[in-house]
What we know:
The structure holds 2 protein chains of 2 kinds.
Chain A: H1 13-17, H2 26-39, H3 42-62, H4 67-84, H5 95-112, H6 136-152, H7 155-165, H8 171-178, H9 182-200
Chain B: H1 9-16, H2 22-34, H3 36-54, H4 63-72, H5 88-91, H6 95-101, E1 111-114, E2 117-121, E3 130-135, E4 144-146, E5 150-156, E6 158-160, E7 165-167, E8 171-174, E9 183-184, E10 190-196, E11 200-202, H7 205-214
Antiparallel strand pairs in B: 1-2, 2-3, 3-10, 4-11, 5-8, 5-10, 6-7, 6-9
Amino acid sequence: MQDQPPGDEALSVVALRAEKTSETPAKDWSAMLAELAISRDRQLFVRLFRHFSPRIKGYIMKLGLTEATAEELTQEAMLSVWRKTHLYDPGKAAASTWIYTLARNLSIDWMRKQKYPEYDLDSWHEEAGEPAVLELAEQAVMSDQVAMAIRQLPDNQAQVIIMSFYEGRSHSEIADRLSIPLGSVKSRIRLASEKLKQALRGNHDH
Amino acid sequence: MTINHHLDEATLFSYVAGALAQGPALVVASHLAMCGICRRRCRELEAIGGALLENISLAAVSDNTLASVLDRLDQDVIPEAAARPAPVANSGIPAPLASYVGDSLEDLSWKKLVPGVWVHDLPSQGKGITRLLRVAPGKAALPHSHRGSELTLLLRGSYSDEVGRFSTGDVADLDDQITHQPLVDSDHDCICLIATEYPLRYTTLFGKITQPLFGF
Lengths: 206, 216
């Protein structure tokens, strides 16, 4: 269903890890995105566009889509950002998190010609009773911490994380590709996920 | 609704990564609609997705692209299909599933497999199956194992098997190491949503013989 099969990038984990970090704290992007909902300021949108669109396009190309498709889907994603900003709640998630889920869903919907089942993307603000995962101030530093945590994962764990997030491969596909049992794929993901979540919470005990 | 059985971390991770096939993703999203604990876990993993996006290698986007997006900002948007599915509290059907089956499990076309067991197949892509299974009280499914994973969400009623007891909202997230035979122990029909990556493996001769007939 894809333009072209995802590359073999995950098999060369080291190359993938040399990735840039952002210069503007995530907190500022989240505040800007929230402000956009109120001000509808085009200059603000342009700033968000310049920051997020190369990332969205980079993500979509890693999923194995052609540059032309990635360009088209990036436009759609940024238009969705503009149109759905009123649904964004900075108390619930960082801007990058909200935009990630938008870009992910658009890409999958395009690849499958079928809507990726969402649990409540359009109603994030409706769940008043649910506490935020992280305070906004904590979100400001967390993306660097997660990036560092990925660099520190053992290669075999980094590999399954990259194959999941960047290549969209299922557990069985990963098992077949790496010639390891399904259970090993799952246990590697569980171990890696636990470490990344600790990084997210700012817990460096491990 | 007290939920005792939750999603495996690896399953939830792959859902967030967009790496689950359509059927399993539907089961996960449906459980998330019912389970605040897993929703919270899910949001945490989504934050990891955001961090990865923030740190990804960039792909150049031209100023022409920006200009054409800016041109489209004021276009009227055709509203998405207005029907936002009914919430779980009213119909017993979680919203993600409601977009496939509507708001009533009773009105579906149920196909009888054997006495006391009915199925309603959902459209799915790939090799696996996605279906609703309805089993009468006291009936058991045939013992089986799986080549890949099997995800089952309990929508109504309850059953017990080698793993434990499952009731409304619980999800059974099984891998290829488990052979089980669920037995319905509620006093009304048990209805669950099931997605497998591959056809099931029956462990009895009867199951193997009847498999082609039932399409399981």
